[in-house]
Design brief:
The protein is an alpha+beta fold and 86 residues long. It has one domain: 2-Layer Sandwich (Beta Polymerase, domain 2). Helix content is 45%, strand content 24%. It contains four helices and four strands. The protein has a four-stranded mixed beta sheet, sandwiched between helices. Strand 2, helix 2 and strand 3 form a beta-alpha-beta unit.
């Protein structure tokens, strides 16, 4: 993993009780096994901590993130503008 950021309504301080925790995970390259493991881990941590909301990881390779950033995709913009590095 090259970078992790929290973004979305919880990062902006605008979350409702049912809002999820959006996590951006940047990887050097596409790795489906890592992606699956991170999604499972996020659910396990939220369950173990008894969080009243889910954690949703958005796992992307550098190439994919660069592609959606170039297309001015809203998700990429939100990650850059409001994302908080962790």
């Amino acid at each position: 993993m090259a970078e992790v950021r929290v973004f979305g309504s919880r990062a902006r301080g605008e979350a409702r009780p049912d809002s999820d925790l959006d996590l951006f995970v940047l990887c050097e390259s596409e790795d489906r096994a890592l992606r699956g493991a991170l999604i499972d881990l996020a659910w396990d941590v939220a369950y173990d901590l008894e969080l009243p909301y889910s954690a949703t990881p958005h796992v992307m390779s550098r190439a994919h993130f660069a592609r959606i950033l170039g297309l001015e995709h809203r998700l990429a913009r939100d990650i850059l503008v409001e994302g908080i590095r962790v």
